[in-house]
Amino acid sequence: MIYLGKKTFDASFDRFAKNYHDIRPGYPEEMFLDIIKTANLGTATRVIEIGTGTGIATRRLAETGCIITGVEPGANLMAIAKENLAGFKNVTLENIMFEHLQPTEPY
């Protein structure tokens, strides 16, 4: 959305982040197993997750030990993701648009 020449983020997922998180079903374990196998995820793997949301998928991927940079423009979604992922030292969360991410490490 453009407002007075300034780009802002205004998605219903973010406005209703708590409701979204509470009712959003998880993802099938088979999907994660396919991702883990195909991407060969492990402690040496660096991952950028675009659209982290509340961290539902991030949590399962973080369990592999891979190093995740989660990018989420929604401040409300990000607040919930930070709570849900607080115990994972291998997860860094960026509350920005993907286009503004300036990684310092290769992915």
What does the model show?
This protein has a three-stranded parallel sheet with strand order 3-4-5, covered by helices on one side. With 107 residues, it is of the alpha/beta class. It contains five helices and five strands; from the N terminus they run ββαααβαβαβ.
Blueprint (SSEs and pairs):
Layout: E1 2-3, E2 6-7, H1 12-15, H2 17-23, H3 29-39, E3 46-50, H4 56-62, E4 67-71, H5 75-84, E5 91-94
Parallel strand pairs: 3-4, 4-5
Antiparallel strand pairs: 1-2
How do the SSEs run, as a string of H and E?
EEHHHEHEHE
Beta-strand portion reads 15-25%
Mass-distribution shape? globular
Poorly predicted ranges = none
- SS-based class: alpha/beta
Mean pLDDT: 90
Question: What's the count of strands?
Answer: 5
Mind telling me the C-alpha Rg?
14 Å
What is the number of helices? 5
Spatial arrangement of strands, main beta sheet: 3-4-5
Mind summarizing the main beta sheet? 3 strands, parallel
User: N-to-C terminal Cα separation, in Å?
Assistant: 29 Å
| Percent in helix | 25-40%
